Amino acid sequence: MSGAALGLEIVFVFFLALFLLHRYGDFKKQHRLVIIATLLAWYLCFLIVFILPLDVSTTIYNRCKLAANSSPAESNGSYVTLAPSKQKCFKPWSYIPDGIMPIFWRVVYWTSQFLTWILLPFMQSYARSGGFSITGKIKTALIENAIYYGTYLLIFGAFLIYVAVNPNFNLQWNQLQTIGIAAANTWGLFLLVLLLGYGLVEIPRSHWNGAKRGYLLMKTYFKAAKLMTEKADAEENLEDIMEEVRKVSESIKYNHPLRKCVDTILKKCPTEYQERMGRNMDDYEDFDERQNSYPSEKSLTKLHKQVIYSVQRHRRTQVQWQILLEQAFYLEDVAKNESSATRQFVHTFHSQEPENKIIQYFYTPTVEWYWECLLRPWFYRVLAVVLATFSVIVVWSECTFFSTKPVLSLFAVFIQLAEKTYNYIYIEMACFLTIFFLSICVYSTVFRIRVFNYYYLASHHQTDAYSLLFSGMLFCRLTPPLCLNFLGLTHMDATISHKNTQPTAYTSIMGSMRVLSFIADGFYIYYPMLVVILCIATYFSLGTRCLNLLGFQQFMGDSEMTSDLIDEGKELIRREKRKRQRQEEGENRRREWKERYGNRDESTRNRVVHTDQKESSFSETNANRPLSKYTRSNGRTERDRIELLQDAEPLDFNADSINDDPLESDSGR
């Protein structure tokens, strides 16, 4: 089993990252390099979270072997027996051989740092560039990142000069490497505590509120009002951009040198706008004969960038509006079915997507009613209580993990108790649940936050390339300090526990933080205590209230603006519901009309065909063989004529002009 657990987790994490990226990204429309870079960043970060518990169990086993070798012991099979205490150091089922984990962590860590500090920022600028060639996009990306890279080089160069001039410092390459890692982890820890303080409160509260039907429905109405405003703004912005594209397309003719750039812009426009602009195009005209002011390539590059952004935003708001409508309709159905006496869940509208037959077989209307109306609220309440308990344990441990005598961190207590009995399965499960909960609190906040319209992770394949790359940068910067914070909570980091024991392979890659004592003994220990203040601020919704005062409407139950938006959203949902009902009623009437009168038309045609067959058989008996061939062809011609007369639509005698052929006249239909 050596290395088998590592291989299984590597494969599992890859498919997990691929699934999440498929949910948020669009593999068909987005550039392959963007997909690959984002997938690699997400994959490496998730991999660190899943592999770290195996590193902890392997380190505990190695410590046991060192203790056994330093005391009288005897070997017996796959474990070592300590002579004084008679304890057995069983080899864990997920044991990773020596030498693999350091190489693994070194490759994963430095690859993620290369992505977050060098490659992904460059690709962000490349993805947002409006250039028409690869060279132009690379040039734009280099110019935009010149200040970004120059700032880091300036700080690093000043530090090197200070170290070289000051005789008191004698730093070697390993120490410089540790200083660079500490600087990156300090920046990540600063952002980590902010996100963690929000997630520790908001995740349990969101699940508790998820059990309230009225709360979810009111919040959906609120979202509908806000999304309609954003949707109208996106449509108006797209119309303005398309008007500029139309003017540019009409001014730059076919033989203009910049016409290729205009064609590239037109390909990014929606299909209906392309057809509209194509009909308004003039014939071939020499651009030198007209003394007009043509736009420059720089202005076309800016217009190209605006077109990409406006089209993506318009498409995203359209898809989100349809998804929100389905959620609102479903929540209204749940509210109606709660008082159902038959205990059968009845939907107002049928699902537009085909349902899986297996799910439809087991998830019957009766099962759906019991789950949605009876079991699901209680399940969410119990889950919220469990998550709130975890949050309290995390907050307590963040404030007390620096205490080693006595050990006050609950996570460290759990690990040390399991270490005494060498229960590796319990150790790995405890470590996995702890770091998994911390990761959920941090990563879910990354998926929830929205920086205006520049960064927004939208599900159902509606996230743009810039937001995907930015999320990859955040994950790569947050994951290493998150893992170090976890090792500190469990006292597996020698810097926190102050024990001369074998460190984990992950800690050995980070290096000894004693090089910078003010960071190791100050910032890393006392800064996480701020999570208490952030949790209190999140519990009382101080950030939401500040945003509401600044004019950014947030969902608040005691706000008059919130009530107005809820009423507006409720009216919008009611209007869309009536529209959907009229569409379904029209489709039902057409279906009934076709079933009722379609059979009558079919019987009429069958009688006509039967009469023609009798006439053709009579002509065959009274004529010779060559004439019968023409008679059959005449019969087919007569049938075709009768069917055409039956399918032809009546003339409109109220039209201004009547053409001889009604099938070729648009006004005669």
UniProtKB/TrEMBL annotation:
- Main location group: membrane
Biased composition annotated in UniProt, kind: Acidic residues = 658-669
What family is this protein classified in? Answer: Belongs to the LIMR family.
Q: Which UniProt keywords apply?
A: Coiled coil, Membrane, Transmembrane, Transmembrane helix
| Compartments, record wording | Membrane
Organism whose genome encodes this protein: Climacteris rufus
Coiled-coil ranges per UniProt? 224-251
Keyword presence, Ubl conjugation: no
Which GO BP terms apply?
A: adrenergic receptor signaling pathway
User: Is Coiled coil among this UniProt entry's keywords?
Assistant: yes
Q: How does it sit in the membrane?
A: Multi-pass membrane protein
Specify residue ranges for compositional bias: Basic and acidic residues.
Answer: 582-617, 635-644
Q: Spell out the residue ranges making up region: Disordered.
A: 576-669
Biased region (Polar residues) positions are 618-634
The terms describing its cellular component in GO are: membrane
Q: Origin, by domain of life? A: Eukaryota
Q: What is this protein called?
A: LMBD2 protein
Q: Where are the transmembrane segments?
A: 6-21, 33-52, 103-126, 146-165, 177-201, 378-396, 425-446, 466-489, 523-542
Q: Which InterPro entries match?
A: GPCR-associated_LMBR1, LMBR1-like_membr_prot
Identify the coding gene: Lmbrd2
